[in-house]
Amino acid sequence: MVRIKERYLLVNIVYPPDPSKPAESSLPSHVVHHQPTTDKLTYQSLLKAIKTEVALLFGDYGSGSLDASLSIKYLSLATSTFIIRCPRAHYRMLWAALTFLHHVPIAHGSGRPCIFRVVRVSGTMRKAEEEAIRRAKRLIIAAQEEASCATSTLTDAHVLQEPLPTDITDESSDESMGEGDG
Amino acid sequence: MSQTTIPEADRSSTKKPRLDKSHDILTCTIKTPEFSYAHMELITDNTTAEAPSLDELQVKSYCTAALRQFLGLTGAGMPLDILKAEGAHCWVRVPRPDLGSFAAAITAWRGTTEDGAPCLLRVRRCSDWLGAMVGSEGQDRLWN
Question: Ribonucleases P/MRP subunit Pop8-like domain location, by residue (chain B) (predicted)?
Answer without folding.
Answer: 34-109
